[in-house]
Amino acid sequence: MRTPLTLRILHSTPRAGWIALAVFAALTWIAVPVAHAVLPEAHPLHLSAYTVSLLGKILCYMVVAVAMDLIWGYAGILSLGHGLFFALGGYAFGMYLMRQIGRDGSYQSDLPDFMVFLDWKELPWYWAGSDSFLGTLLLVVAVPGLVAFVFGWFAFRSRIKGVYFSIITQALTYAAMLLFFRNETGFGGNNGFTDFKRILGYSITSPEMRATLFALSAALLMACLVLGRYLVTSRFGRVLAAIRDAESRVMFIGYNPLHYKLFMWTLSAVLCGLAGALYVPQVGIINPSEMSPANSIEIAVWVAVGGRGTLVGAVLGAGIVNLAKSWFTMSFPEYWPFFLGFLFIAVTLYLPDGVVGLWRRLRARTAPATPTVPAPQQSKPQAEARREMQPAAVPIESNRLPAAKGAEA
Amino acid sequence: MLRSGFTRLLCGLALLGMLAAPARAALDEAKVAGLAGDFQSRLDTIEALGVAGGDDARRVLDALEGGRLGLAAGVLVIVAGDSVVSAATGEKLDLAPAAAETFTVNNRVRRALGTARAALALAASDRDVRLSAARTLADNTTESLLPMFERALAKESDDEIRSVLARAAARVNLASADAAKRLKAAEALGESSDPAVKNLLAALLEKKDGEWVEPSSEVRAAADMAIHTIDRRIATAEAVGTLFSGLSLGSILLLAALGLAITYGVMGVINMAHGELLMVGAYATFLVQGLFRSYLPAYVDWYVAAAIPAAFLAAALVGVAMERLVLRHLYGRPLESLLATWGLSLVLIQAARVVFGPQNVELANPVWMSGGIALAAGVVLPWNRIVIVGFAVFVLLLIWLMMQRTRLGMFVRAVTQNRAMAGCVGVPTARVDTLAFAIGSGVAGLGGLALSQIANVGPAMGTGYIVDAFMVVVLGGVGQLAGAVWAALGLGIVGKFLEGWAGAVIAKILVLVFVIVFIQKRPQGIFALKGRFADM
């Protein structure tokens, strides 16, 4: 008999991980909401609205990073189009937010302001259902999921992979950005959606709403981590890692990589969509520049900085890079592109396993007696364990070069 | 042909005669006499002078416009400072300036003067002056100007001016009371390819108050025919124009993709900073232009030629630095290389922004590259694009020679096909990588040079091209020059036709969708290297 699912999920994360999650939950569900919404503004521990939405934004980015890590770190598929799914989720929720404005817009019309401005008389058909909250939640999941499923099905079926796949995903998000920039597409063109007023009738700027959105983002992040952990330690995750390291061999054994990749790809897109839906009300705007290729590729660098193939690494990376970005863009805006650029280069050259890999190397050096791979992690796929032991060189992948190139050529 | 040559010869002789004769006696007394007459005869005389042309006519008209023409002792005179000269002959007369009663110039006279001046300007040597004069005249024609149009037509060799003149002449004839003349004019207009002429003819086929504007059914039939011919000609010209802009877009894509095809073929690495190498080439061109402006202003038109080696070298050097410092250490990790080169592109863009400023820099087209060949009204093939198509062919030829006829080219092809085997038989793969990267980057620099002649040069100019260039490589097949050529031209031309049909954004999206669908069918591009490989 198989172990019940709950037990399997429970076992997939080590005890230290559950404790860390509990601390994180206490911080984000109790401490931050209290510090923002209950404590008076003069109190030294009070968190300003700016801080809370900045942290909430970073939590959403962390979810995206985890989604990216699931597909890149564990399935070896580098997507340069994850910003598209994030933005699609954001737009889906943004439609609901636009409808919630009601007649409070500048033109006092039932239609969103930009439609009045374009002289449209009624909502386009694809706005149907955008006034219902549940319908919107469905859209938030369904739209990125469906786009990813269709695209992934075509791409994986013809075994597009490696840099081919990366560039095509980039082209996809670029094309979508162009499409959304058009006014006729019906999503507000250049300006996108903004000036949101309320969710479910509650004001979007009230401290309570902010705290709620923040707590929800944290909950989503934790759910992602638990789910991701469960997936990558499961049998499914092992097959996926095997596909990552030697796809043809897995095929010869009798697995069809299409199903595995497609599932992970679609799941990753849905997670991005959910993150986007939580991001939009906290930031207060969504526009097509979210789909720019630069944004998507930045997601990859968060994961690379933290350490791909480790879920904690993705979270750390998103946090580090985005905090650095906030600081840089405030203090030395002209140096941010230099920093980001050199970060891309330095991480790929010197930190192939990111901050987490660095931490492991340091620990291995200070305490050579303890095993490199901690006990609870021994359940990890063998290939990944090997990767962790030799952070600088990825043995299987580097062996693949001549053969893989031949197949591509 | 023979006849027109003959006419030209005659005209030339006539001109010579005019030059040879003493300029003073050129005007007949009777010709200018009308200026002294009543208002209408004055207007007629002004027009006649314009039609007649010549320096003396200009002198008289100038004087009239300046309020210096007048009557003194019954003779038309021009007051020139302290002296008085005869209007007709220009001879000095023994009269005091105060004795002359100058004519006042009102608006109608001024308008007539404008027409006459334009008529005079038709004989100017500067093409632009003639063209603008012809345009002015074509807008308000009268029957009396007809002989002048015909004469100017006989002399004119510029096609654009000829078409304007012919249209003006035909417009006069179409208004003629003589049905035979109208018929001839309608038939003659069929030779045109100008939408304005089409409107002119279409006006004949309308009904006003139940009556045809044009009473003769024969003329109407001829006009109808002419409209059809014009329509066909315009459609052909537009198709050729679109084809050409597709070709020129294709050659830009080719220049951007050639380098990428080489580097990707050899190393399996997508250089995301490839677009920035275009930018480096464009800025190198800008610097060369600056050098020419400061030190060799006389040869500034040839800075583009001097920029060819400069752009190649600048981009090649940046490329070699990238390969040596970064990519070399990432062999076998294509996805990481992708990210690292993206980082490089960010650094290069920001560096350009810091060094050259965030605004676009200004690059002037050399004189020999401006203008173009007019196919029809509104359809012009600009010289700079023609030059770029030729340049792309030239670069392609060089690369082809390099790849097929040199030892380095052979090595590059060997490494592209099978790196391990090439290494085994003694190809210095590491050095080939560096050289291939240098050449690929240099070609991108040349692409930037070409781009600088038709597009804005700014720090972010290259970002849009990496995806397009990669599409070309994917479509054409890796490491295949022929594939890259077909793919670049195909994408360029299909893209431009779609653009005319559905707008730029939709066209771009359709092309992307097409490439994605195409890869379903042929994952290895149009031209695939043959071989038996499996990735184990």
UniProtKB/TrEMBL annotation, chain A:
Recorded GO MF terms: branched-chain amino acid transmembrane transporter activity
Top-level taxon of the source organism: Bacteria
Gene Ontology, cellular component aspect: plasma membrane
Stretches that traverse the bilayer: 47-67, 74-98, 133-156, 163-181, 211-232, 258-279, 299-323, 335-352
Region Disordered, residue ranges: 369-409
Regions annotated as coiled coil: none
InterPro entries (UniProt xref): ABC_transp_permease, ABC_transptr_urea_perm_UrtC, LivM-like
Residues spanning the signal sequence: none
Membrane topology: Multi-pass membrane protein
Record keywords: Cell membrane, Membrane, Transmembrane, Transmembrane helix
Entry keyword annotation includes Transmembrane helix: yes
Subcellular locations according to the entry: Cell membrane
Primary localization: membrane
PANTHER family: HIGH-AFFINITY BRANCHED-CHAIN AMINO ACID TRANSPORT SYSTEM PERMEASE, SLR1201 PROTEIN
Name of the protein this chain belongs to: Amino acid/amide ABC transporter membrane protein 2, HAAT family
Species, as recorded: Aromatoleum tolulyticum
From TrEMBL, chain B:
Main location: membrane
Positions of transmembrane segments: 243-265, 277-296, 302-326, 338-357, 363-381, 386-403, 435-457, 469-494, 500-519
Xref: InterPro entries: ABC_transp_permease, ABC_UrtB_bac, ARM-like, ARM-type_fold, BCAA_transport_permease
Gene3D superfamilies to which the protein is assigned, alphabetical: Leucine-rich Repeat Variant
Signal peptide feature range: 1-25
Molecular function in Gene Ontology: transmembrane transporter activity
GO (cellular component) term, any one: plasma membrane
Annotated compartments: Cell membrane
Alphabetized UniProt keyword annotations: Amino-acid transport, Cell membrane, Membrane, Signal, Transmembrane, Transmembrane helix, Transport
One protein family per Pfam: BPD_transp_2
Membrane topology: Multi-pass membrane protein
Keyword Membrane: yes
GO biological process, one term: amino acid transport
Alphabetical list of NCBIfam families matching this protein: urea_trans_UrtB
Protein name: Amino acid/amide ABC transporter membrane protein 1, HAAT family
